[in-house]
Amino acid sequence: MTAAIEALGLGKRYGRRWALSDCTLSIPAGRVTGLVGPNGAGKTTLINLATGMLAPTTGSITVLGSKPASGPEQLAKVGYVAQDTPTYAGLTVEDHLRFGAHMNPGWDAALAHKRMSQLGIDPKQKAGKLSGGQRAQLALTLAIAKRPELLILDEPIASLDPLARREFLQVLMETTAEHEISVVMSSHLVADLERVTDYLIVLMSSRVQVTGDIDELLATHYLLSGARRDPAALPAGQQVISARHTDRQSTILVRSTEPILDPTWSVSQLDLEDLVLAYMGNTTASVETGHKIMEEQR
Amino acid sequence: MMWLTWRQFRWQAVTAAAVLAVLAIALAATGIGLSTRFDQAGLSTCHSACSSLATNFVRDLRGTPYAALFFGCIILLYLAPALMGIFWGAPLIAREFEAGTHRLAWNQSITRARWSAVKLGLIGLAAVATAGLLSLMITWWAGPIDRALNLVGGSPSFGGTRMSPVVFAARGVAPLGYAAFAFALGVTAGVLIRRTLPAMAITLVIFAGVQFLVPNFVRPHLLPPVQATAPFNANTANEIMISAQGNANSTDNTMTVVGDFSQPGAWMLSNKTITPAGKAFTGPAGTTGTGNSTPQQCGNWLDSQHLRQQVTYQPASRFWPLQLIETGIYLILAAGLGLLCTWQVRRRRA
Fold first, then answer.
1. Is residue B43 situated within a structural domain?
2. What is the Rg, in whole angstroms, of the alpha carbon atoms belonging to chain A?
3. Nearest beta carbon to residue A82 from set B103, B112, B348
4. pLDDT, tens digit, 9 for 90 and up, residues A29-48
5. Considering the domain A5-205 in this protein, what is its CATH number?
6. What is the ipTM of this complex?
């Protein structure tokens, strides 16, 4: 099966600053992938490269097997909801649906109209008069009704209130499940992604820290705490992601495919947020670890 | 794509159509009266030596609403391309950048090249068509005045003839070229600056600059000007000016003389009076034959100097060749800018 997004040594430089560097990853199709990282980590840059809004400085990226935005067929396969969900303020909701129909040969008008009426959005309303949540829903509808194979969303819910956020994610999940769309969605809020994603990419300081199936990641990460000791003394199968020491105690996050058998450790599992924060928390150590992990996965 | 272009443009289109309609009614209503005056002046049936009839016709028009409308139309044809560049061209893509809607538009199943080509092509065509209709109506309406002015050899109260820079740009096909160029200029400024207001300002400044430079420095050389020399005749001279410094009798005083050169409807580029030695004539204007004498004596003296007039001009018959060449140049510039825009849009920028 073709990967949804495949990047090889991908990098993008603005002047002297690298917004994304040496990014090698493979996002599987058929998954809902969360792209997590703090603001400025390179999430939007990666997404802009994947939608063809930007051209890479180094390396290459293919989306569903082709170069992004390389032609009408490729554009038809990718739905994109940009940051701040732009719509034409002066056009009505109905106009937007007409716009979608004129611009996309695969347009599903029935789906688009059904979604708008389910959400109770008045088709005569100007897009500029919609609430943030409704506008995001309109942008999502435009992206879904073109019936893409891959849906890319850039911080779609960052500016929404909690209720609208929940509603947006719910609709997203229902539609993507129904139409079997692959989804890549960025956010700096892990809690939002936790409910909907099953695959994770952590970006930090323009580099990929970790990628993988979320259940698998959660099952193979352990937080060890016990009497102080040197992390280097751990068995070879246990990779240290982060380590914290007090005078008498060590707390070490390890990744291991084997269960932790050493009885002197008190072992606990992490939730997604802890895991993400651990990878975001110490960039210097985890850059290498992250790469090692990626290498292993392929 | 055509639908979107139309949907975003329809109010501008309605405005332009309304302006054209109002103008068409005004010109049709007054155009009839103008032709009647032309007929009554005997100009439509005149075949030879019509210049005195034409002089009367032009003189009688001074101060009438026709004269006001004549200049109003010229101003309109100067403004129209600039306005279309500023209000149709500059915001066309800059507004999408400002609102972020290009990220919506560029992710539909249509390539960016096609998106920009359709936008540029359709609205550009609308701009050219609007300018074309304006020019057609105005050229038709002003036809009697232009013909009379050609016979008279131009009248300062009507901006000369249709060959003179002021009128030339408001006749024939040239406005089509200006409109295409101004529009493409506006779009290009918008694409490069990515902000509407600065793009509008830049469009206005550059377009005004080009519209100043072309008639002054380019149009005279689009076709090699005709050069001619003729003996100077003081009796028909346009201008004899003596610049006296203190003593009116001093031989240091200089004089400038400009002879008349009869080329009805021609665009005079230069008219110099030279001495038999080929130098520009500057006098002397002192007692040496002229100082204290009567104008008649002065004229006789000038005639005895064997002065010659050296003139360069574009004859009236070159109106259409010059129009076509200039329009072609502007259209080529517009096409180049259009390609630049599409290329810029295709280059990926988020």
1. yes
2. 21
3. B103
4. 999 999 998 888 889 999 99
5. 3.40.50.300
6. 0.86
